[in-house]
Amino acid sequence: MSRRGEMALIAFLQAQNCSNYAGSWRHPETMQDYLKPQYYQRIARILEDGRFHMAFFDDRLAMPDILGRDHAEAVRNGIRVVKMDPVSILSAMGYATEKLGLGATYSTTYYEPFHIARVFATLDHMLGGRVAWNVVTSLNDSEARNMGRSEHPEHDLRYDRADEFMEIVLSLWDSWDDDAIKNDRETGLFADPTKVRRLKHHGRWYDVEGTFTVPRTPQGRPVLLQAGQSGRGKTFAANWGELIFITQRNIEAARANYREFKESIAALGRNPDEVKVCPAIYSIIGTSEDEAAEKKAQIEALAKPVDGLALLSEVLNYDFASKAMDEPFTDEELAGIKGLQGIRDRVVQGSGKKNPTVADFVEVSGRGTIRDFTGFHGTPKKIADEMTEWFETDACDGFVLAATHMPGAYEDFVRLVVPELQRRGVFRKEFAGTTLRENLRLPRPRPFDWKRPA
């Protein structure tokens, strides 16, 4: 089946003082007005001009303050310490654009189903059906304490609870039929009550009984994003995600992971063609290979060792200052990691050690550096050739582009790489429609079509 023009391009944003790359704020070309709406609106317009499908915000509910059990190093070095609520920023970006999809991260562990359902359904109405929810279960004890809990729940338990959470949110989004509202002044009928369903959910984790207050949205319901890296996380992503973003270091691993995800999705009774799998990437572009290499060296030099230690402590919920760099993790310590177990598993595999050291975690994970994600670096032609190969050989359905500096990384990509992808016929020249689902070529969902045999 031809996939001409169907490569998905997603921008990976942060509502903070830096991009995913913690050192990006140190780049001389990074804009510093990240506390103002104009900063995000500028990025949104660049992405819409480049025909990107969507921009979405990753998020945490705490700054990286686990290293040394203190916030000092993170604050001193600007390691992702400013974290604003992304939904407010999506509104500002949405009013500055017309067709760009916009997504935000909200946690199933620290919010309630009704709250998330109402926030994202409302936003989808306000922005004309362009909204996505990035579903996370959160990472660490800092987030738990900020949200009034003593500690973060165990990894698999979070996903068990999140499965029930998803059933409630989707039931709420699907509780109004498309034609429920009549607005008939002559008869006095506002809406047909037979077309609005009351939720009566009584499960292991939640008892929710009530009627949802937001009618069905322009695209049926918001698009669901998910990042599945661990075993349990992959199952959750295959069950619920419509766009799944992953991290892969090479094309062979990406092909294997892509095939595994598509098979898992099909085994769950879903259509794998209706789920996009997209790896996160960095891209450094030069008019020549020498210029690109020079830029890359400049960007790599922005990273500090403390960046990686603080970010590893954050995502693994473990204080990396409590061990020497050459000290191996014990079996008990590895088993007790509550955060992103996919990173732990990748380090064990990549280091070839059953008990890797702190130095192994820093080196293999690449956390805090641009090695954290796949890198496409070089001339626009070279980058477009590599991306096309990944797309056309079933390594992915598109890419999630993180920025090395803001907004220059996106400006360079839109100006130099997008035209090359369009010339190859793998990326579109115009938007397919007005909603995010139309532009991702995802069908408009029918109410309760997510219910499948167990």
TrEMBL record:
A Pfam family recorded for this sequence: Bac_luciferase
Ranges annotated as spanning the membrane: none
InterPro entries from the UniProt entry: Diverse_substr_monoxygenases, Luciferase-like_dom, Luciferase-like_sf, NTA_MOA
Domain named Luciferase-like: residues: 27-392
Keywords, alphabetical: Flavoprotein, FMN, Monooxygenase, Oxidoreductase
Similarity annotation: Belongs to the NtaA/SnaA/DszA monooxygenase family.
Annotated PANTHER family: ALKANESULFONATE MONOOXYGENASE-RELATED (PTHR30011), C2H2 FINGER DOMAIN TRANSCRIPTION FACTOR (EUROFUNG)-RELATED (PTHR30011:SF16)
Listed name of the protein: LLM class flavin-dependent oxidoreductase
Protein's organism: Roseococcus pinisoli
Lineage of producing organism: Bacteria, Pseudomonadati, Pseudomonadota, Alphaproteobacteria, Acetobacterales
